[in-house]
Design a protein that fits this description.
The protein has 209 residues and is an alpha+beta fold. Helices cover 36% and strands 21% of the residues. The longest helix is centred in the C-terminal third of the chain and has 24 residues. It is globular, with a radius of gyration of 17 Å.
């Protein structure tokens, strides 16, 4: 018997499909990289299936997983990074969307840092992030060394979040960035602002050489 899909789920799927095309158009998820998700309720969320280009998503490329990242009523396989989406939804109750991209600038800068943080200061665009209303505060984005052990990596991110007052995004070194928001519009704004700031930082590094 087919599972009934609510109109809300249909809209969430369309949000992710549209976002995938937008991200692909900006070359922020080359090949089949990255993953996108949308919160359904405290027990489930939608996420893109593994191995699918983000510019060619269809409703069938979005699957439901439980709060721990396990598939719900489907043989489809989610990304191993689903654990990080699960962590974000648990850690940030206001989060309704999580986007993970693999852009050039985030990848290059994070490879240099590998483990630490990127600090953005005095950029007007910092105000694109929810809760930030001045360029005079520092926007800190943690960078974690990449690992194929997603359980250990999720634990590392979780432990780090215990020690910080606020966090708008984080980056896996040489891999890509994660950010989230309370609406699809807000989450897309966060992605766009981060990509702009990362490009500025990279080009600043070249100018200072």
């Amino acid at each position: 018997m087919a599972t009934m899909v609510t109109l809300d789920q249909e809209q969430l799927k369309q949000d992710l499909i549209d976002t995938g095309r937008w991200i692909d158009g900006n070359r922020w998820c080359p090949a089949t990289s990255g993953n996108l998700s949308a919160w359904l309720d405290a027990e489930q969320f939608l996420i893109t299936v593994s191995g699918k280009g983000k510019g060619e998503l269809t409703p069938d490329d979005l699957m439901t997983v439980d709060a721990s990242g396990n598939p719900v009523n489907t043989p489809k396989r989610p990304s191993a990074e689903t654990l990080l989406h699960s962590l974000i939804y648990r850690r940030f109750p206001q989060a309704r969307y999580v986007f993970h991209t693999h852009s050039i600038y985030g990848t290059l800068i994070s490879r240099v840092i590998w483990s630490g943080e990127i600090v953005f200061r005095n950029y007007e665009l910092q105000k694109a992030f929810a809760g930030i209303d001045t360029h005079e505060v520092a926007l800190k984005v943690p960078v974690f060394g990449n690992s194929q052990d997603m359980v250990a990596l999720a634990q590392e991110v979780d432990t780090h979040l215990d020690s910080v007052q606020s966090c708008q995004a984080f980056i896996l070194a040489g891999h890509g960035l994660y950010t989230w928001g309370s609406t699809v519009k807000e989450t897309r704004r966060h992605i766009e602002a981060l990509e702009f700031l990362l490009e500025c930082e990279y080009k600043s590094m070249l100018l200072l050489k």
